[in-house]
Amino acid sequence: MNRSTLDKLISTTGLVIAVVLLAASVALFWTYSFIHTQVHDQMAAEKIYFPNAGTSALTSLPATDRDKVAQYAGQQLLTGAQAEVFADHYIAVHLKKIGAGMTYSQLSAASLADPGNTLLAGQVQTIFRGETLRGLLLNAYAFDTMAVVARYAAVGALVAGLLLIVLALLGFRHAGLKVSRR
Fold first, then answer.
1. Residue 42's closest CA among 131, 132, 141?
2. What mean pLDDT is predicted for residues 117-145?
3. Which of the two residues, 177 and 114, has the higher pLDDT score?
4. How far apart are CA 58 and CA 70, in angstroms?
5. Angle, alpha carbons 147-151-153 (nearest 5°)
6. Long-range Cβ pairs for the range 98-105 (8 Å, 24+)
7. What residues have CB less than 8 Å from 16, skipping those under 6 apart?
8. 162: which residues sit within 8 A by CB, 6+ positions away?
9. For a Cys staple, 52 with which of 74, 87, 99, 103, CB 3.0–4.6 Å?
């Protein structure tokens, strides 16, 4: 096989891979947009707001949690990052306080052992609802994180695809040149 044929074969392969990468980039950008928009729209519909700066809802939090929540003070929860902060640094703090550090499972078992304790039954219901909301918010965070990963992958595929197109075109140009041998 002569050099020109090899250059054309490698360049064609590079061009095919470039097209696949560019198509993958388009699909990944669409994936990012779809997931990110869904998370935003679903969070917006819930109308959840972070506590305002200076309010007891914010100042009563432990310092590390307060610092995390304070960055979004007064804002509506609209992103995955905000959902993670609200779930892990606001709701979780309140659930620990309500349940005295016990999990839903532990409280539920205690309530089943003492069915006449209405205070405990109320705690179980509150913890269940809070953990459910917390889990839903953490799912929004996870999906939004996947969207961000898809965006990075889309940029990588786009750059690689464009680079391969340039290299393939250079390969075709090289294949067309006459190689003189002495």
1. 141
2. 96
3. 114
4. 7
5. 115
6. 98/123, 98/126, 98/127, 98/130, 99/123, 99/127, 103/127, 104/128, 104/131
7. none
8. 18, 22
9. 74
Reading the block at residue 78, the tokens are 């609209």
| 91, two tokens | 């709701």
| C-alpha–C-alpha distance, residues 114 and 179, integer Å | 91
Owner of token pair 């695809």: 161
CA dist 9 and 20 (Å) reads 17
pLDDT of residue 5: 85
Return the SS3 of 49: strand
Phi, psi of 35 (to 5 degrees): -65, -45
- For the packed helices 104-113 and 118-176, what is the interaxial angle rounded to 10 degrees? 150
pLDDT tens digits for 8-39? 899 999 999 999 999 999 999 999 999 999 99
pLDDT at 178: 52
* Contact partners, residue 71, CB within 8 Å, separation at least 6: 85
Please enumerate in sequence order all residues whose Cβ is within 8 A of that of 142, keeping only pairs 6 or more positions apart, or say none. Answer: 80
DSSP 79: S
Please state the pTM of the whole predicted model: 0.83
Pull the structure tokens for residue 8: 């054309």
Query: By the 8 A CB rule, do 7 and 174 touch?
Result: yes
